[in-house]
Amino acid sequence: MAYVALYRLWRPQDFDNLFGQEHIRTTLKNAISAGKIAHAYLFAGPRGTGKTTTAKILAKALNCAEGPTPTPCNRCLSCERITAGSSMDVFEIDAASNRGIDEIRDLREAVKFAPVEGRYKVYIIDEVHMLTTEAFNALLKTLEEPPSHIVFILATTEPHKIPATIHSRCQRYDFRRIPVQEIERRLTEVAASINLDIAPEAMRLIASHADGGLRDALSILDQCTALGEAKITGAMVQNLLGLVGHEWVWRLTDAVADKDAPAVLQALDELVALGKDVRQVLLELALHFRSLMLHKAAPDMTNLELYSEDREILAAQSARFSHDELVQIIQAFQSAANEAKWAPEPRITAEMALLSAARGVIRNSDIAGLSARVAALEAALARPSQPQPAHTPPQAVVRPAAKEAPVRMEPVKAEAAGPGPVKAAATAQPIADPCQVWEVVLKDLLAGGKRSVHACVSQGQLTELGAGHATVQFGSAFAKERSEKEDYRQMIESALGQIAGQPVRLICTLGTPARPKEKPAPATAKGPEEHHPALDQAIMMFGGKVIKEEKNGED
Ligand SMILES: [Zn+2]
């Protein structure tokens, strides 16, 4: 007997065995029992989730000798022929290869004739979104006035490509991606039925790799049986699927957390030597960092389909990154994986992404933070008599006085006149001009859309930026008190912290600001927004934000 693929052997033949799509099973069975048969159905959903299988069961339900029935007998001639694909009344059309007007014209002629043996002529059009516009128009004509003995079942993985005119004439059913646990359960059943000894870990790998499609999962299981091994292990499945594997991903993650560039490059090099695809490395890393992010956010939540369920690893590794870092690293790995698809040397793309992650310099989504650092760096460089030791990394320039006592801003000039590098290095580390730092903070707040905070804090002036704290002097008691409240304080401290490169605690004082701000705040890059002092004042006092500025409105 010829070999039959597992997914065909295990293809459900009635609604009750339809796997993972309970909502569709119930609705269709009820509709058939009630005699409510539509003329056109649209089955939408990812590949391998049971659309065509359901279409064939529906065809059987309609044409079974005992039907129409929600439980086709699977024994009568009609049922048997539909199962074998030889029914004279059920037609499967693959729109991917028959997408033209001629096929649909033929179909329009054919639908006029009554069914040969059953009650209904059923047309199953797979991948229907592939039809040409002309073919869709021709199909629409039939759907507008369908003969009573015709049922169309349109299946698609991309329902958004179906014209609205067709869509509106169909009853739509959405097939869901089958959860990993359910696929695992089914695989266990199937493996037991064919006496395949397979490790639970291997089963989980197959289930998560199938991406919600049972057909893919069964095909992989089929490949496993072809290995001819007594027992299928996780490592075998990993090799079969070209997966990188948990241990490697954990090792790379630790190296990134250690900021150990040589270890990162070493691991990548070993993976390449093992013949692993660097894009797969990036994808699995992105999945693992997603798991770390989710674990950090909700450690007790289950059913999140994590890359690895090892709670100890998740707890230990997620503690080594901040939430923002995890988000940025995931973004970087995902875009690198996309780039690697087209890059002439994908390995370079992977190396850049990994090294950036290891150095913690991924800031592509945070232009404001980057510009703040650049501005502070420029300010520091602008003062020539504040030499830096040659080996000091650039970050040190914008990290003011990491360990030293607070530095007053005023004596900067006197110190600038100081003589040699030795003395300068011995004294407190140089920091950027407070006025410039403050400018950057204000710009950041504005660029971040925090106009009400900006309106309030722009009334103050940074007078001191020391080890872990910053002093801002306000002329008005109201602005001072408002800035001290938790919400504003957090935003100001975060903006200052970005520049200082360390957490900064805000101290607000009352007095006459050294340099009261006269000029209007700089406009954001987005557009010709105007700033009305009165409006800013109002925002500061009452909170809220400007949704739209009316040019004709009165101030
Ligand atoms: Zn039957």
Textual characterization of the structure:
Helices cover 50% and strands 9% of the residues. With 555 residues, the chain is of the alpha/beta class. The strands form three sheets. The protein has a five-stranded parallel sheet with strand order 2-3-4-1-5, with helices on one face. α6 (133-144) links the parallel β3 and β4. The chain is elongated. It starts with 5 loop residues before the first helix and ends in a 13-residue tail after the last helix. Zinc ion is lined by residues 64-66, 72-73, 75-76, 78-79.
Briefly, what is this?
With 555 residues, the chain is α/β, with parallel strands linked by helices.
Essential attributes:
disordered C terminus; 555 residues; 9% strand; Zinc Finger, Delta Prime, domain 3; Helicase, Ruva Protein, domain 3; five-stranded parallel sheet; Rossmann fold; alpha/beta
CATH-assigned homologous superfamily of the largest domain = P-loop containing nucleotide triphosphate hydrolases
Number of domains: 4
Low-confidence stretches: 363-368, 386-430, 516-530, 549-555
Helix content: 40-55%
List the helices and strands and how they pair.
Elements: H1 6-9, H2 22-33, E1 40-44, H3 51-63, H4 77-84, E2 90-94, H5 101-110, E3 121-126, H6 133-144, E4 150-156, H7 164-167, E5 171-174, H8 180-193, E6 197-198, H9 200-209, H10 214-226, E7 231-232, H11 234-241, H12 246-257, H13 261-273, H14 278-297, H15 311-318, H16 323-342, H17 346-359, H18 367-381, H19 395-398, H20 412-416, H21 421-426, H22 434-447, H23 451-457, E8 460-466, E9 469-474, H24 477-484, H25 486-500, E10 505-510, H26 533-542
Parallel strand pairs: 1-4, 1-5, 2-3, 3-4, 6-7, 9-10
Antiparallel strand pairs: 8-9
Helix pairs in contact: 3-4, 5-6, 8-9, 8-10, 9-11, 12-13, 12-14, 13-17, 14-15, 14-16, 16-17, 18-22, 18-25, 22-23, 22-25, 23-26
Bound molecules: zinc ion.
Zinc ion binds at residues 64-66, 72-73, 75-76, 78-79.
